[in-house]
């Protein structure tokens, strides 16, 4: 009997180099999604006359945006590199498109958040009146851009050569946008009063359901890379994401509309589940670069399928 082939790399070197990104990147993925989700909730609160929910959501979106930029620039090492990315527009590059989407998203969120912080005694000054007049249309435009902010990171990851990301390129944007919606709604449930958190509850429930379904579909369609998602610390992140999201969804439907404590607990579960989901996907991708079989076997399968 011929023994099974071992997929060894050339002189012990991996077929692919592992990503050089540090743990700032999954944190950036989470906070960017949170900024997008809370922006949509803030716009919904604005349009339905819920000032408390609008205020906390715009402030949460702005805080998430600043945190995501800090994590991104921290990983880049040199802050001016973000400025360098604005020198070109390349529609075929997810990084270039994502940079411009984030740049278009930021001013509207910033204007809406700063407008919420203007003290009442300054409201009659002309700068405050001008800001108040511009904040709503700028904020609504940012909310319209928010789905792009929530999904472009999934496109960015899945258009690399990393098998753990590339093999799930069709499902990953749905996982990330659902996760962003769940975290944005969860944030509103934590900080807004119960009588105003209706849009946040609805948005969180839809997002959590989408994340759970999309994750299951993604797992079902995985080939060999499923091993990387089901072992070690990646599997723990996956179980945490699933169970926290299920608990948050159940609490959102059953408790969040009745109890302030129930709303806060459900929102925190959704936020934690969303963070676990981003770390799960990131760590799984890194794991698939360490074993040559995740690169070689799918390549051979695709080659055999084309030649058969």
UniProtKB/TrEMBL annotation:
Keyword Transmembrane: yes
Keyword terms of this UniProt record: Cell membrane, Membrane, Transmembrane, Transmembrane helix
Domain of life: Bacteria
Segments crossing the lipid bilayer: 25-44, 56-77, 97-118, 138-162, 174-194
Cross-referenced Pfam families: NrfD
Entry-linked InterPro entries: Electron_transfer_protein (IPR052049), NrfD-like (IPR005614)
Membrane topology listed for this record: Multi-pass membrane protein
Subcellular location: Cell membrane
Keyword Cell membrane among record annotations: yes
Family: Belongs to the NrfD family.
Protein name: NrfD/PsrC family molybdoenzyme membrane anchor subunit
Native species: Pseudonocardia charpentierae
